Amino acid sequence: MTASYDRMQRVSTWGAVVVSLLLIVAGWYALQLKFGTEYVENWLPANTPTRVAYTDFSRRFGGDQVLLLTWSEANLQDSRLQSAYDQLEQLRQQNPDWPIVSITHSLQTVEKLQEKLHGLSQAAAIRRLAGQAVGADGSSFIAIQVRGLQPKERDQMIAALYQLARGLGIANRDIVIAGEPYQTHIVDFYSRLSVERFVPLSVLLAMVAAWLCLRSWRLTLMVMALAGLGQMLGMALISATMGQMGAIMIVVPTLLFMLTLSASVHLVNYYVDCRHSGLSHPGLRALKMGAWPCFLSALTTSFGFISLVVSDLEPVFQFGLLAGIGILVTTLILLLLFVPATRIQAIGHREQPDEYFRPFRWAEGLIALTSGRSWTIIAVTLLVCSAAAWGLPRLQTTTRFDGMFDEGHPSVRSLRWVESRLGPIETMEFLITFPEQQPDVDLIDQLAVVQQLQAAINSQSSVHSTFSAINLLPSLPLRHGSRATIQRSVYRKVITDDLGTLESAQLISTKQSGTSWRITARFKTSQDDQFHQLKSELQAVAQRQLESQIESPAQRPTLEITGLRTVIETANSVLMQDLISSFATAFLLITPAMMLLVRSFWGGLLIMIPNILPVVLVFGVMGWALIPLDVASILTASVALGIAVDDTLHCVYWFLRSRKAGASLQGASAEAIRHCGRAMWFTTLISTCAMLPFIFCEFLPTGKFALLLILILMSAIIGDLLLLPAMMSSRLGRWMGPATNHDNSAA
């Protein structure tokens, strides 16, 4: 026995040396970590039809990504509009690496239209441009069309906009900036702010909770140091593989901190038991007892994470892969460093009974409850889960920016100002393409089709405004008569001369495959499912209009609907698919591990019931309450299943151990509660405290993720301390371990 412990000691020592050297490298990578969130259009695979269409649209028309800069009471008479435009043009020349497609302002666009259409009044020009280049009441803005902005360029540009506006004497509270690049910038900013504000507080609360549980500063500092290494490793993995951490990945280091802390507390629980019993080599004995359940816990938890790699959304895929690898690596490091850590914390500590060893005070009450009312507990739990499960089909998803912050947040206030003064910023792009092989369909005929189609779209009550080349051209000439022939000839020359201007304005695209005209429709929806309905309705209206104008399918132009909002809609549908597929994958990966643990097919399925309980309960309630799921919320289902399994494995491990020693079902269940109940409660309490500060994060998806995880942790501890022992002490426990002669037939 001594030789075995000597070997373990040598392996642990050399392993600690190697790990310490690797941690230096990991620390360096962690310090290099930067923040940067990918644009939504880059979340989907490159070959996704929606993304392919949007990429082609962006290449041909410059995209629909625009930064809007304005301020309260900005109008066409405001001289600061031209000053801001001139300064932006200078900045553009000074920063040629900024991928700016164009810069325009409302007054410039109105004047150009008046110049082009001689005799057109300013009021008439505003009516033509309302909702696109100017507000209906004359509210004005500067539009910066960009393409492929990197986080650094985007942040520099937005910082320059604020500085420029302040230089014009505009107060911060009056500056209004909007657009998808600005929204991504805000998400990154508050993700970084969340780390700076809440991670130190998270660590502090976890430390206080650990001390209240362990009643020893030595052990508290030890588990916190080991958990901190897990957090650092998470940051290093993200830095080494991705180079930057976006809003989704921000929770990975904290999750690894929490999971490493949980495993550390379980090992410390074994260590304290060994010390209290007066056994030699308590650190090595604790490692020998806890290594296998800790490894199984890490493996099953990683299955929960890795199940997310089935997602088609790149941030979700990256989250699952890195978190899955991270938990395995951090657990290995924990097992290698645990024995040296116990020896270090014991330096100068006199050999005496541990004053911080206290039996789990609720153990005997839980034992009496779960053994005496096992079937009642099982029935009530299953009834509650069934009721919650009816809410699952009502779950909805969202990726809306105005759902990421409170209504009073400055970025949301800016968005509302733009919507009320200038019009909605949500757009849908209609592309009408006339094949080049139709020479009898000239430009005037094409414009007539576009005009009628635009009128049909604009007539829908859900559409705020539309814009196309029609808004910048004179009225179409008459179709019949000698006078009409002359008018059409003149008009055709005007259009031909203006093709270059229309192309530079991204309203038309000519290529070998044909001529494409762009109609931009602006609208406002309050929920994502409304967009899906609106898109279907407008597509049907547009298709009917084209069919009524051109009867021959061979002569009919093709219609395509695209735009960033369609990409977001696709991401939404993928989110719901991911929730189902990733959870199913996690279940299929974790359940066989449980079956192998108990050497029983049905026993493995029974053990999974307490682990499914928290997910069904929390997500079912969200469905009943119609609380939408965002990207961060989707992650919690598979993550929660992996976390819940952690405590379950330790409890089942002690149950099986007692059963092999000949204990009855109720006796083995009682032993499992006595040995693991304290550590299970401690890990839940400490993990909850670690996540608690993030609830107050201004970035609501992070706050919702933290709240969901806390609720799931609380539900999981109920399942592990009530439902699981009740199942083990009942007749169902016969499936969870080897039968003995001491089984209580009345169980």
Overview of the structural elements:
It is a single chain. This protein is α+β, with helices and mostly antiparallel strands and 747 residues long. It has 3 domains: 2-38 and 185-347 and 355-402 and 569-736, Multidrug efflux transporter AcrB transmembrane domain (Multidrug efflux transporter AcrB transmembrane fold, Up-down Bundle), CATH 1.20.1640; 66-178, 2-Layer Sandwich (Alpha-Beta Plaits); 424-562, Alpha-Beta Plaits (2-Layer Sandwich). 64% of the residues lie in helices and 8% in strands. The protein has helices spanning 2-31, 49-61, 80-94, 106-116, 122-129, 151-167, 180-214, 217-241, 252-276, 282-306, 314-345, 363-372, 374-389, 410-421, 443-458, 482-504, 528-549, 564-598, 601-624, 631-660, 665-691, 700-729; strands spanning 34-35, 66-71, 100-105, 142-146, 175-178, 244-245, 426-435, 463-467, 508-511, 514-523, 558-562. The strands form 3 sheets. Strands 7, 8, 9, 10 and 11 form a 5-stranded antiparallel sheet that branches. Strands 3-4-2-5 form a 4-stranded antiparallel sheet. A hairpin with a 2-residue loop joins strand 9 (508-511) and strand 10 (514-523). Helix 7 packs across helix 21 (665-691). It is elongated.
